[in-house]
């Protein structure tokens, strides 16, 4: 199209403005691409700024690790059963696990996929735990796994699982468990776990030991992430109190 024809069509005189906006937008995209490439190559690629094949392979590798773990747990707990998972859960778990390259978190996502399977494939209860796990950092998962594995547990008269208070760990042990040395970061991460109602304690001024007692919700999350479809009471092989006690 000639310049004369362009002007005749642009009766409102906005073409120069539109061209300028287009130029600025492309410049912004190029700048964003360069920045994302510098701070996080997979994110830049996923957004289409670079070679998408590489990030797809990276995400596929991560998701596959979670799925392989899910298959092993499925065979362990549901061998011989014709169990299925709701597509909503499968899609969400695969999406989240694709962005995770931490082995512990991959195993948790795999366990959650395995425990999402039920006979009719319509059980959506794991959606609660999908939303919780998606909010946890690898540090928080390490602390939570340790807490759930090492706390005492008992069964209420109604048959529900409850934790005994503890474990209490000193700062050196907590740093080893969490894999972090920064006390400010650890404090913040524990605060988040408490805000999600997954632990009861946290850092306290003047205390020599840190209370990382898990909540009943955390215990149930932990059990589902082990691929177990039964109750937490069954998983930990707990016995209900005798009648009258």
What's the number of helices? Answer: 12
**Which CATH class of the domain at 138-235 is shown?**
Mainly Alpha
Termini gap: 91 Å
What coarse outline follows from CA principal-axis ratios? Answer: flat
Total strands: 6
Quaternary state reads single chain
In CATH, the topology of the domain at 138-235 is named Arc Repressor Mutant, subunit A
Order of helices and strands: HHHHEHHEHHEEEHHEHH
Can you summarize the main beta sheet? 2 strands, antiparallel
Strand content: 5-15%
| Computed structural class | mainly alpha
Residue-averaged pLDDT: 86
Identify the CATH architecture of the domain at 138-235.
Orthogonal Bundle
Provide an overview of this structure.
By secondary structure, this protein is mainly alpha-helical. It is built from twelve helices and six strands. 31% of the residues are buried. Among the domains are: 69 residues, no CATH class; 98 residues, Arc Repressor Mutant, subunit A, CATH 1.10.10. A hairpin with a 5-residue loop joins strand 3 and strand 4. The chain is flat and about 75 Å long.
Which terms would index this structure?
flat; mainly alpha; two-stranded antiparallel ribbon; single chain; 58% helix; Arc Repressor Mutant, subunit A; 245 residues
């Amino acid at each position: 199209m000639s310049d004369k024809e362009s002007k005749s069509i642009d009766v409102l005189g906005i073409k120069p403005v539109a061209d300028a906006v287009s130029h600025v937008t492309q410049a912004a995209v190029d700048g964003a691409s360069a920045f994302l490439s510098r701070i996080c190559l997979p994110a830049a690629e996923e957004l289409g700024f670079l070679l998408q094949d590489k990030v797809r392979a990276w995400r596929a590798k991560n998701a596959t690790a979670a799925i392989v773990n899910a298959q092993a747990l499925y065979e362990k707990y549901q061998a011989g059963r014709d169990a299925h998972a709701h597509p909503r859960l499968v899609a969400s778990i695969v999406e989240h696990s694709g962005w995770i390259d931490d082995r512990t978190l991959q195993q948790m996502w795999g366990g959650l996929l395995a425990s999402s399977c039920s006979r009719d494939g319509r059980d959506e209860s794991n959606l609660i735990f999908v939303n919780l796990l998606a909010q946890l950092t690898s540090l928080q998962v390490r602390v939570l796994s340790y807490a759930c594995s090492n706390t005492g547990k008992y069964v209420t008269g109604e048959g529900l699982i409850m934790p005994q208070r503890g474990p209490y760990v000193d700062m050196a042990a907590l740093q080893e468990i969490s894999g972090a040395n920064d006390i400010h970061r650890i404090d913040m991460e524990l605060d988040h776990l408490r805000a999600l109602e997954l632990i009861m304690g946290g850092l306290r001024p003047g205390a020599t030991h840190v209370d990382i007692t898990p909540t009943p919700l955390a215990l149930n999350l932990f059990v589902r992430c082990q691929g177990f479809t039964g109750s937490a009471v069954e998983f930990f092989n707990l016995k209900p109190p005798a009648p009258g006690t």
